[in-house]
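=== RUN LOG ===
request id: a7f3
mode: sequence -> structure
chains: 1
length: 194
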Amino acid sequence: MHFAPDTEEALEFVVLLGDTDPGASRSGRDELETLADLAALLAPIPFTGRIDGDDAELFDVRQTRALLRRVWTLDRDDAVTEVNRILREAKALPQLARHDVSDWHLHATVPEAPLGERMRVEAALALIDVIRSDEMRRLRICEADDCTGLVLDLSRNGSKRFCSVRCGNRMNMIAFRERQAAGTAAEVTPRAQE
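=== RESULT ===
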């Protein structure tokens, strides 16, 4: 699947943000608990505009994470309702922008808008492309046991099941061990009957 570069970047950021949740993070802890966590999340991301770096902003970004994780799992029609609500609440006005190393892409808020609002609106703009392309099935939750990581499936055949290689390897090892145990049990059963 191929989306516009800014759509893919926004969706990848939703995954990055969503996977700070304790059920999805590599550490197993809430990786968006402190202002330092927020700064670490933003460090590699070229967010332009206002960044307050205060507790109110952290709270708003945490609320944004919860909202976007929920929208990620909605069916297409329900996602439309949420995307429209996000855009309406932000009084979004899409316009093309070019800055830093980014070529022309969409912005729909002013740079002075709160960070959480800009995150929600950028995600909503990306979700518009996903919805219009009827590709909501590309947005999933990891199939690994005890993982709620977000999966953005950009593969050609739409078969990505896990949020990371780590989860895929873990589940493959579990399946291998189950097959081994089943094979051993099958070998033991006939001998016990003899």
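=== NOTES ===
The mean pLDDT is 91.
The two ends are 56 Å apart (CA to CA).
=== END ===
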